[in-house]
Amino acid sequence: MIQRKTTLIALLVVALFGMATAQKGYTYQVALNKMQGNRLAIKLTAPESSQPVVNFVFPEAVPGFYQKGLQFGRLVYDVRAFDAQRQPLPAEQISFNRWRIGNAQQLRYIEYEVEDVWSHKGYSRWPAAENLFVPGKACLLNPAALFGYIEGQENLPFYVYLTRPPGLFASSGLNLPADAGRDVFSAASYQELAGRPILYTDQEPLTFKVANTAFEIGVFSEKKAVNPQRIKAVLEPMFSALAQYMGGAFPVDKYAFLFFFYSGEAMPPAALEHRNSCVWVWPEQWDAKLMKAPNLEAGLKNAGFHEFLHCYAPLNIHSEEWQQFDFDNLSMSSHLWLYEGLTEYLNYHAQVNRKLISEEVFHWFVSDMLSGMKSYRTDISLTDMSRRVYGELAGEYDKAVFKSFMVCLALDIKLRQRSGGQSGLKHLAQHLAAKYGPNKAFKDSELFDVIAGMTHPEAGAFLKAHVGGAAPLPLEEIFGLVGYAYDPARNKVKPRDEATEEELALREQWLYGE
Q: Is the pTM value of this prediction over 0.70?
């Protein structure tokens, strides 16, 4: 078995080398063990080009972070281009994230240096999407902040060779050995590459298995205040409960949690989901007010499901716009309500369903969402906001997420009502994930009809009115179905003492049904 694995690895390396020399894709080489200060030297063998001039680009937005204006290029230095004989070609920076390269038909190599954002916190937009280096101790590599692409050629394959610093362990959604001298992996496109973060750290990662999924926990903690065992003690029982909630299986075989805990002044928590991993940048010195939780364990319980549940939407349920994310000309699907609202709703519903939180605590979360959506513009549909989230409606994003949560809550109750309590929103998520999966996209204009066909015509009509249109949510009616009183003035819900048996039965099926 060992010999067979060695042969396969050798064949992979030969195949990758052959493709790279044919210049049909990108080959990146990074010597992490030769970091100078807080800078890494990056070497790229570039794909062939028939154009006289090309742009070498870093993205200004990445999937999962719904704002543009990322300035990765501000921490990219000394970009140089060469032909096959290593003669220099003209290279000129034309904006924060773009370099124009002349005589591009002769382009063979690009070399540059990348500095981590920790040295320039004023440039940071979202630390979970950026590179963080602690020489000799940790490297959090976010590929979109580390590797550029030739504009118009982002759908070519990428091959990456990383030489590790001695004594550091790797943690990733990729199947990398925890302890090795060199890592090699490939991606079919820049979008796939951007979703492959890696954490190198001086703490060995831990793994545990729940249902069909192997979970990996990678932790860097600057002052050793947090270790993987502490994280595992919280997450393992949580995901055992989530597996029961989702029917005993998840849509991924492996999932990695990558945590970077820093010392010093605390910043707002940052996390970012990827294909089968998520990155968290949190402070070691816990600030209960800033983190909205009394301690680390409570913070993990509040947010631990959310990033993982993105493996349903958008990772297995997504539109053509998301699947073919255009890094050069940003556009967005109409269905951000699904990607964020479904995820946040299932996060809290799973907890009350499996009795990780009480029904009263669930009411508090619902009330928070009601308060948060209050200032969302009443003249804009959620689909319109979603399409324009990278433009003039970026400021509505947070409020739209709150409203999307309430859309999903209302839809869940309606689905339970129409199915006699037997089927709800989590079942719809599972059916949609089975229908589409990671490599098949839905058409934006067809999703509501698809959902109606899977559930009930009333669900499609509801979504067209309250998501595709700007009709107010019928919250009093929806809450009344489960025997709750809704106070719009105070943004509160609570059980009604005079709830009927029918309402109580539907409430039980909604909150605690399989």
A: yes
Place of tokens 């809550």: 409
**E strands within 195-319?**
198-201, 206-210, 213-221, 254-262, 270-273, 277-283
Please give the pLDDT value at position 21. 46
CA distance 134 to 31: 15
For residue 116, the number of C-alpha atoms closer than 13 Å in the C-beta half-sphere is: 20
Greatest Cα pair distance in the chain: 84
Q: 151-160, 278-287, 321-330, 409-418: lowest mean pLDDT where? A: 321-330
Look at residue 330 in the predicted model and tell me its pLDDT. 82
Band (pLDDT 50/70/90 cuts) for residue 23 is low
CA atoms within 13 A on the CB side of 169: 14
Distance of CA 43 to the CA centre of its chain: 27
CB burial of residue 139 (10 Å; 0-12, 13-18, 19+): buried
Q: Which two tokens stand for residue 335?
A: 């269905």
High-pLDDT (> 90) share of the chain, %:
84
**Residue for token digits 């009809």?**
449
Using the structure block, give the residue that is written with the tokens 């140089």. Answer: 80
Q: Would you state the structure tokens that stand for residue 421, as one six-digit string?
A: 């309590």
Residue with tokens 């945590």: 259
- Rounded CA-CA distance 324/398 in Å is 24
Contact criterion met (CB below 8 Å) for 262 and 283: yes
Structure tokens at 113: 């240096």
Residues 453-465, mean pLDDT to the nearest whole number: 97
For residue 219, the SS3 value is: strand
Residue carrying structure tokens 């939780």:
293
Query: Could you check whether the bond before residue 474 is cis, i.e. omega within 30 degrees of 0?
Result: no
For 472, the 3-state DSSP assignment is: coil
C-alpha 477/C-alpha 485 separation (Å) is 10
**Per-residue model confidence as pLDDT tens digits over 428-447:** 999 999 999 999 999 999 99
CB atoms within 10 A of CB 77: 12
Q: What DSSP string describes 257-284?
A: EEEEEE-SS----EEEE-SSEEEEEEES
Q: CA 323, CA 439: separation in Å to the nearest integer?
A: 8
